[in-house]
Amino acid sequence: MKTEFTAVVPVAGAGTRLRPHTYTYPKVLLTVGNKPIIGHIIDELSAAGIKKICLVTGYLGGKIKEYISSNYQGLRVSYVEQPEAKGLGHAIWLTRRCVTGPVLVTLGDTIISADLGKFLDSKDDCIAVKEVADPRRFGVVEVANGYIKSMMEKPEKPASNLAIVGIYSFKNSAKLYGSLERLVESGRTTRGEIQFTDALSLMLKGGHKLKPVAIDGWYDCGKPETLLETNRYILNRKKFPVKVKNSLIIPPVYIAPTARVSNSIIGPYASIGEGAVIDSSIVSDSIINENASITAMNLNGSLIGPSAIAVGRRDQINIGENSEVRFDKRDCDL
Ligand code: UTP
Description:
Helices cover 22% and strands 31% of the residues. The protein is an alpha/beta fold. It has two domains: 215 residues, Spore Coat Polysaccharide Biosynthesis Protein SpsA, Chain A (Alpha-Beta Complex); 90 residues, Hexapeptide repeat proteins (UDP N-Acetylglucosamine Acyltransferase, domain 1), CATH 2.160.10. β2 and β3 form a beta hairpin. α6 packs across α7. The termini are far apart. The mean pLDDT is 92. The chain binds uridine 5'-triphosphate (UTP). The site of uridine 5'-triphosphate (UTP) has 21 residues, from α4.
């Protein structure tokens, strides 16, 4: 019988780079394509056969629990609270009492297009990596004879251009938690945080073997521009049915069934949430969240929070939940 993995997904961070949206919404509940980031992650995990998920929540965690309990009744989801975001290593260490047997760790702000079977079926413990042009803002691995020789978090002089991209699998979680325990007990931090990479380095130093697994698709959702890039990737992957009035659709787009679109040009790469109202506007490469209202706008590269109202004519805006902007009347004629 195939061994049953538990997926650990840390989602406790405050998502500061995505303010103002993350003032009222945790990052994982921000929409990309047709649903929140966490929805895409859970669907990928379920499709790979994972039935047990442990989420590390903190900042606005109640909203995450609410979303999951109303949308994923069939899954076994447990929650561990990280009251203060002390680093990824700390977040994962907190899950030690929730997990027995094999564990798959996947970050809460990354959507990965990879065959998870490569991780779940491997006889080795694996870390997903991807070649990047400038690896200095990532964890970086050095490889020798098919296994990882060393790793460093955000090195100034990277040993390679292989970046760690947020999926890790361990056949024996006790070894991983043992290493995290030693790290936490030692009080060691790097750049003020208890780093997961430091716990993995300790495992390497103890002779543990970690295999790099190269993956192609890796979509970050941590910043406005990468969220929009991930939105484009998701819209390209699937065709969604649309219903609009007197409007031109330039695919790919997602328009939620209860959104009302009239007298507008939508797309390419527009994602319109439930209950949103778009009238007399042009919207491309943008995410319009639920119940937002857009009138006489020309939007490109924009993120519009839930229930926000925008009236007027500007090219790029980034406004949060319940905000309201109205541009000068002279600018309003489309
Ligand atoms: P990030 O550092 O990218 O997320 O962590 P963040 O801190 O929320 O974002 P910024 O930098 O303020 O914009 C990657 C993932 O690890 C989780 C985050 O929630 C995110 O899903 N994480 C990070 C934790 O759960 N706890 C931590 O202490 C750190």
